[in-house]
Amino acid sequence: MSSTTTTETSDYFFYHMASQLMSGARNTELTSLAVAGTALLGGSLYYYLNSTNTKNRKNNVLLDTIDLKNQSREVKNHEDGSRISNINNSDILLSNCFQDGKTLYELFLRGKKISNNNDYLGTRKTTKEPFKWLSYSQVNDMAEKIGSAFIHFGLQPAKETLIGIYAKNRPEWVITEEACNAYSFVTVPLYDTLGEEAIQYILLQTEMRLVVCDDSEKAMHLMKSRTNLEYIVVVDQIKDEIREKATEMNIKLVSFDEIQEIGQTNLRRPIPPNENDMATICYTSGTTGQPKGAMITHRNMVSIGSSMYINLEQSKEKFAHEGAHRYLSYLPLAHMLERVSQSFIKSFGGKIGFYQGDIKLLSEDLRDLKPTIFITVPRLLNRIYSKVTDNLERAPFYKKFLFRWAFANKEQEVLKGIVRNNSIYDYVFKQIRESLGGSVKFIFTGSAPISTDVLHFLRVVCGCHVLEGYGATETGGASSVQIPHESTVGNVGPPFACCMYKLIDVPSMNLDVKRDNKGEICVFGTNIFKGYYKDEEKTREALDDDGWYHTGDIGIWETNGTLKIVDRVKNIFKLQQGEYVAPEKIENIYVRSRYVAQSFVYGNSYKSSLVGIIVPEETIMIEWAKNNNLANLSFKDLCANSEVKQVILKDLELQAKAGGLKGFEKVKDIYLHDELFSIENGLLTPTMKSKRNDLQKYFQSQLDVMNSHLD
């Protein structure tokens, strides 16, 4: 895969990151444990309001503290079981925290003011170089020039005018977005893993006239067929053959420097949007069919950041001054999570540094930037946890004893909700914190359920708040996250202050909410998208007449008022004997095995047992082979070896027992595959979720063979 594409956050991406952090692990136990600190999702701010900000706080709407044993309540005058966060002092849903921050443009101006024109966007080409920074004022000036050039090209500042961005994570991406925010244009992110057909579909559906892209290769992709494109802005050097193609297509090519020169000559004052205007159309790749464009407003995004801000106040963290936040951007800007995270980091005048584009160098970027926020997804954390615990088992006795002694004592503090990194036990975990740069205050995880063992482990060893979140593109990127000092695991916290949840019956699965305390999760609030662009049918499927977004996820309410995600509606299937199976739950248990990198569990309604596809952990299997007289075999050969299969099956049985799986939830046969599921091979979505339909089709012959053996 290319290291320059922002959406390439596949397991290949994570494998190299983990490998980099694991280098030298066998020489020292603490170094191997340093990997466990790499984590975080859900993203935004974490800062306790100081006196200069509290004057804008809506104290009549929000409480200062929340009881962690009672985090949500049923909404008054609602008979459908709707629940709201107990952070909300009333049943009013939050839209924004600050009167001077109701749109993304206002949030940028607020950050510029608060930071006293501090550094904003940083980047570097090599590890040997320090990060080079653009200040808030420099970005503001560049954005105004670019926005003015858009107007000069004949684009009207209005919610109907769409500007495409087809680039990796880099300052120019954000500068273009700031230009659109300042002049009321609507951004439409594009990304490689959509595929050429989907990109052409989006260009035709949106009828956009201008796209800003990275390089000549991306420009060529945009010109594969006739569309409404009139302008392509290219950040890097423009190749002669691309200029020839543009001339043939009657498209004007402009460099990033040239568009600023045009804007400087034709400078216009900003034309700010209002909070209900569209900010972006975010296309979701999905698992089948054409991509759907979720229409997200400024209010949607602001409400999420405001809710995160309020949640994180519960940490009681205080910082010397605003503008102290540092954030490393490496997850795709084409998706809402990264967009929301960056939008509200800047609202406090924080710094956003971009990784070099090479995952092998990510640990160096972390070390040098020293972020206070770093985002990742569970798939990486599960694999890191397996590597760390495996190395711990092989460590000398005295190192095991020291680690376990420190862990057991620190664990007692964590279970009481105490979060710190300065106890005598924390010295043992120092290198874990340093692997993240040494300054991380909050770790978030989301996108998919995380193993409870992994989450708890990170809380103990990282000395910071480690919180699980939940959301979707259609909820603006997020709709809840655990409250700081939370000691329980397996839940995603209460609803954000901007929204409420309810569970509804699922007749096809025989789920009755009142009887089972289990049902499909629906979300309502100021963060909910407006619908899918030019697709009323899909909009009606997702949004009901009352404005509730139907997530397709199955959830239950915990006794402390938090939400727990059980599985997807469509992913639960019935076996021959009538038992319902949630495959993702089983897969999350199986990946705890030291031998397993990825798993896919499949069940046929005509069979009484499950089968599975396992991608073994290559580094572990190669080492196992050396110790078992099979060193001459390649990884592909090991995957075809019957002895290896039996070793993995035996360990899966141990994991199933430890995870409390019932007999019908255990796989009876497995097929070992030698290539990771990834975005590039079409088996993962860009948000790192398994494409279950595609996985089934890809492995249909192997599944059929295994199922035939079950007869």
Task: Please give the structural blueprint.
Layout: H1 11-22, H2 29-34, H3 51-54, E1 72-74, E2 83-85, H4 104-114, E3 119-123, E4 132-135, H5 136-152, E5 162-166, H6 171-182, E6 186-189, H7 196-206, E7 210-213, H8 216-222, E8 231-234, H9 240-249, E9 252-255, H10 256-265, E10 278-284, E11 292-297, H11 298-313, E12 326-329, H12 336-346, E13 351-354, H13 362-369, E14 373-376, H14 378-393, H15 397-415, H16 430-435, E15 442-445, H17 452-462, E16 465-470, E17 480-481, E18 499-504, H18 513-516, E19 518-525, H19 536-542, E20 549-557, E21 563-568, E22 573-574, E23 580-581, H20 583-590, E24 596-603, E25 610-616, H21 618-627, H22 635-639, H23 642-658, E26 667-672, H24 692-698, H25 700-709
Parallel strand pairs: 3-13, 5-6, 5-7, 7-8, 8-9, 12-13, 14-15, 15-16, 25-26
Antiparallel strand pairs: 1-2, 2-18, 3-4, 10-11, 16-17, 18-19, 19-20, 20-21, 22-23, 24-25
Written account of the structure:
- With 711 residues, this protein is α/β, with parallel strands linked by helices.
- Among the domains are: 104-273, Rossmann fold (3-Layer(aba) Sandwich); 573-709, GMP Synthetase, Chain A, domain 3 (2-Layer Sandwich), CATH 3.30.300.30.
- 36% of the residues lie in helices and 18% in strands.
- The strands form seven sheets. The chain has a six-stranded antiparallel beta sheet.
- β3 (119-123) and β4 form a beta hairpin.
- α4 (104-114) packs across α12 and α11 (298-313) crosses α12 (336-346).
- The relative contact order is 0.13.
- The model is unreliable at 1-59 (pLDDT under 50).
